[in-house]
Design brief:
single chain, six-stranded antiparallel β-sheet, about 5% helix, about 120 residues, three-stranded antiparallel β-sheet, globular, about 30% strand
């Protein structure tokens, strides 16, 4: 998604330098900081991309930011449901319901979170 495709009124939050979130790691952005209705897990995927998912597993009330990055998924630390980073869809049970995605971009070396703006692939799936 290019900057031109992001709605002008989309909330935008600078969450820090992109090089401070190591590949394969996850950080939690609190709802109070993002203005969103829940915490958001920001993931630096193993392929180098950055993604955002609702932080709460759709199966149990467990923080996904405490989970594990496995290729292009974020695995819940409690029951190992793995959620696709691009679509939010669960790829393994017991979770059956997707979590919402949130667009994350890198702009001038900084991570920018767009809370409530879904990843482009989540819109088409």
């Amino acid at each position: 998604m290019t900057a031109a495709e992001i709605p002008d009124d989309a909330p935008r939050l600078d969450i820090g330098p992109s090089d401070e979130l190591p590949e394969g790691e996850v950080m939690r952005v609190d709802a109070e900081d993002s203005g969103h209705d829940g915490d958001i897990a920001v993931v630096h995927a193993e392929d180098g991309g950055f993604f955002g998912l609702d932080d709460e597993c759709s199966h149990e009330s467990v923080s996904l930011s405490d989970g594990f990055v496995e290729e292009d998924t974020l695995e819940c630390p409690m029951h190992a449901s793995a959620f696709c980073l691009k679509t939010g869809k669960p790829e393994t049970p017991p979770a059956l319901t997707p979590v919402r995605t949130h667009l994350v971009t890198v702009e001038d070396g900084r991570l920018v979170l767009y809370p409530g703006t879904p990843h482009p692939e989540a819109r088409t799936s």
